[in-house]
């Protein structure tokens, strides 16, 4: 194998595949990056078995030559050293050469590295997906769906299925739902399926996969293709191939958790409420639960308060836009409320309560497609 | 105690005194910030016994009113909560009020915090220094002296005196010297003492104190006054008072370590050499010592190389500006060399070697006042 490549493109590709590489894998060769050179270009692969990422650098693109002098071949290099070496090379281009002992020579300017590599034949083959369950999304919309839900997945393994995000396609809508059983985040968008008949309810993507995917895909309007099989999901753009396993098991039916009636409705500015909760939580951190209280008052005011006897107490009156319905006094996790309000880009939110012991709902005003649900905490 | 203060000034003062506050102190009240209000302004104090910092916010300055409604008094607040609270308040001003139970009320907009405080009488008194050993420096020059030496102090406690920087005044020159016995950094500047007769050789300032001081003083041409007693040193600007203990013991005589003759002299570009050493060190990190080799070659070239059999090897030919004297092959710590070259702002350096087993010297060309010395490593 031999080629000369634009260094910045190689660095970008390395950063992408590194998202899948872990030093704690059971198959030793997976601590490496697989490099394959063909006349079409250079392909890098990283995998930890759960997530596999391929990043392709075409020989030519938009009339620019990215790679030259290609002699085909492949090798696996140690991911612990390769990225830093490429990043610190002196010139804008770098030449890679392998010999028949899988020794990799890296040349740029006066610098010459010789790294011990491994035979790429030892590297596991990535499965090729065969499915008709494919649909397309814009990159930026997929990023929104991830950001607005993935923070609510469970981080404990007591119910593994809850560590994933449930992806549902029904009636030409795509819905992402995540819950750790104390709160729930959901985002729904209309989906144009071009008359294809795709529908599924029980696809559960590991939260970790979506977090890594979100780091790699750019925030633009380019198209990403999503393909689903029984146990894997593939996200594919022009030069990127992101494969993740799906979680086994049945995702709980969450729609029945969402209250249909409400007894107290508060309209308020998102940021004002977020900052008041954030301040109140400063003194709530000594408590394991980080609990703050919300109480309706007269003149459209709510009081946010928290009390830790050893440290002190805090209370803040927040003027809302309106309070309708019954008086209310409720306690909840400041962290969950901050998480929920942070991902709402709209300036105004509506909060619907159904009493101090029932879950409550936060939604942006004029956007029914984002829903955040939080279970209150009993305080005595 | 009661006052209303500009919040950004209070935040800045808190950040300064926090540099002296540690959660691991034997005197519990030192985990707090002492706040004192007088008609002149507000003074904050933080201390861990080794370092004490006072930051003063004058009531008025440059015709601006920083503090209003002052009722004199003092209190100690918990440093764990106070900084975050002040930082997250909603308005540009904040009111502080204490009651006779040392309860501190913090008000800004609708937010109101009540924190448990402590009686300031319990807070240790900072010593007042009485000394004629005072001199003045510009802030930016003091920052240079610190940056160019403090990285070379010892980080192990086997010889505690080496964890400090030796400050010497002799013959109208100020000299900072640091060594961990494997390398040495020194910076000398001429000092205008206005005919006062100040001279000392054995003042040793803890490296940690200088690192914290460097974070607080601004990079400008304002004047800082330095006063030295037998066991303490005070750095004082208009609104800041930074007191540190000095280290006990005799600092070793370092001047005899510096070779007076050299056998090989290399002139080269600082950055080119720095980057080549940095690259070579990528593969040297598996070795405990992070050792790289330098070898003179023909055509004014030097070869920088490193070899870790399990990983691979690297070599790079660097074109220098000149090589005079004997051929040379020497091994040394890449980290020490990188540290030394990083603090040299000049574009060109001169390296003077006296054989493979003797310490070598790095100096900027045309600046005899900066000197870096490194002991080589024996390799077989």
Automatic annotation (TrEMBL), chains A, B:
Superkingdom: Bacteria
GO biological process per UniProt: DNA strand elongation involved in DNA replication
Transmembrane region(s): none
Pfam families: DNA_pol3_beta, DNA_pol3_beta_2, DNA_pol3_beta_3
InterPro entries, sorted: DNA_clamp_sf, DNA_polIII_beta, DNA_polIII_beta_C, DNA_polIII_beta_cen, DNA_polIII_beta_N
Subcellular localization, as worded in the UniProt entry: Cytoplasm
Classification via SUPFAM superfamilies: DNA clamp
GO CC annotation terms, alphabetical: cytoplasm; DNA polymerase III complex
DNA polymerase III beta sliding clamp central domain mapped to chain residues: 136-253
Domain DNA polymerase III beta sliding clamp N-terminal intervals: 1-127
Record bears the keyword Magnesium: no
Entry's Gene Ontology molecular function annotations: 3'-5' exonuclease activity; DNA binding; DNA-directed DNA polymerase activity
Similarity comment text for this entry: Belongs to the beta sliding clamp family.
NCBIfam families given in the database record: dnan (TIGR00663)
Function: Confers DNA tethering and processivity to DNA polymerases and other proteins. Acts as a clamp, forming a ring around DNA (a reaction catalyzed by the clamp-loading complex) which diffuses in an ATP-independent manner freely and bidirectionally along dsDNA. Initially characterized for its ability to contact the catalytic subunit of DNA polymerase III (Pol III), a complex, multichain enzyme responsible for most of the replicative synthesis in bacteria; Pol III exhibits 3'-5' exonuclease proofreading activity.
Complex formation: Forms a ring-shaped head-to-tail homodimer around DNA.
The protein's name: Beta sliding clamp
Biological source species: Paraliobacillus quinghaiensis
